[in-house]
């Protein structure tokens, strides 16, 4: 799986970090998402897909399998 994030869309809700703190972090200064792993596999890929579905700003996109 390949992930992309859009920091312009991110509203710093933090749902992605709650689901997958190994894949996503938030900037200290404003809470905007930081992608830690753009190519998760296995269980991590499943959690990445869940994070993309939960993100209220649609800022996480799965661009490949
Ligand atoms: S869930 Fe979406 S809006 Fe919230 S921090 Fe993550 S990417 Fe940003």
TrEMBL record:
Transmembrane segments: none
SUPFAM superfamilies noted in UniProt: 4Fe-4S ferredoxins (SSF54862)
Top-level taxon of origin: Bacteria
Function: Ferredoxins are iron-sulfur proteins that transfer electrons in a wide variety of metabolic reactions.
Co-factor requirement: [3Fe-4S] cluster
Protein name, as recorded: Ferredoxin
GO molecular function per UniProt: 3 iron, 4 sulfur cluster binding; electron transfer activity; iron ion binding
Coiled coil: none
Keyword terms: 3Fe-4S, Electron transport, Iron, Iron-sulfur, Metal-binding, Transport
